[in-house]
């Protein structure tokens, strides 16, 4: 039986994925590697997987579901990265796509990047899509609530919104501001996200100055 808090967490993850789909529908086909509807179908599969997710009693089934979820997130990450490369190439060298449209595409990729990495953090550090892995066994992030020995934070567990906030601040500040990464894989993920965000901001700023100038 899935708790009310757990249902709310899964609904939040579905909602941000729907936002991702909406943003990708606005991208010009020249800024997407391959047919963009293939990626959208994969994202819909992930949304469907979130919708039916419940803790599985069979460990093999839980492991397969987690592997499938991570595979889908990885594919979406690579596709968004490919779009970033295409947008960067057009921003630098110029292309048939209008400058303002390129800037909006970069913004869409920036927001998508936040959502994708929030799913990464959620899946590797908490129950995520499977509802099986517990955060307090081997935490990969040190949240402020974990450091306070007060009654209000006793038994506190991060939810999806905490990882979305973590991903947002990491993209905006290019460094951790809320929770600290504790393992090499989480540091690598946060470093990659910060690099993509920094690259996007630098390229968009340069292009915006060129357009306004």
Outline the fold blueprint:
Blueprint: H1 4-25, H2 36-52, H3 59-93, H4 99-125, E1 141-142, H5 160-173, E2 180-181, H6 184-212
Antiparallel strand pairs: 1-2
Helix pairs in contact: 1-2, 1-4, 2-3, 3-4, 3-6, 4-5, 4-6, 5-6
Pick out its properties.
6 helices; 2% strand; globular; 213 residues; mainly alpha; 2 strands
Structural features, described:
With 213 residues, the protein is mostly helical. The chain has one domain. It is 68% helix and 2% strand. The protein has a two-stranded antiparallel sheet. The chain starts with a helix and ends with a helix.
The total count of strands amounts to: 2
Distance from N terminus to C terminus (CA atoms, Å) equals 59 Å
Could you spell the SSE succession in H and E letters?
Answer: HHHHEHEH
- The side-by-side strand order for the widest beta sheet comes to 1-2
Strand content: under 5%
Number of domains: 1
Mean pLDDT across all amino acids: 77
3D shape: globular
> What's the main sheet like?
2 strands, antiparallel
Structural class: mainly alpha
Continuous helix count? 6
Radius of gyration: 18 Å
Summarize the amount of helix as a percent range: 55-70%
Uncertain regions spanning at least 5 consecutive residues:
none
């Amino acid at each position: 039986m899935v708790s009310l808090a757990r249902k709310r967490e899964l609904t939040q993850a579905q909602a941000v994925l729907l936002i991702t789909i909406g943003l990708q529908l606005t991208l010009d086909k020249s800024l997407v590697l391959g047919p963009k509807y293939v990626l959208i179908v994969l994202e819909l599969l992930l949304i469907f997987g979130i919708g039916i997710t419940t803790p599985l009693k069979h460990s093999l089934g839980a492991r397969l579901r987690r592997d499938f979820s991570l595979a889908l997130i990885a594919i979406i990450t690579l596709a968004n990265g490919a779009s970033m490369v295409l947008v960067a190439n057009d921003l630098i060298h110029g292309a048939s796509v209008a400058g303002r449209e390129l800037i909006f595409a970069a913004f869409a990729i920036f927001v998508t990047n936040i959502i994708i990495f929030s799913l990464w953090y959620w899946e590797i550090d908490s129950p995520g899509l499977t509802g099986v892995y517990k955060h307090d066994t081997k935490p990969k992030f040190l949240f402020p609530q974990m450091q306070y020995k007060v009654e209000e934070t006793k038994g506190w567990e991060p939810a999806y919104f905490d990882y979305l906030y973590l991903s947002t601040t990491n993209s905006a500040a290019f460094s951790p501001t809320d929770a600290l990464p504790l393992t090499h894989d989480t540091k690598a993920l946060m470093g990659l996200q910060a690099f993509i965000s920094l690259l996007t901001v630098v390229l968009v700023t340069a292009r915006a100055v060129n357009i306004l100038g």
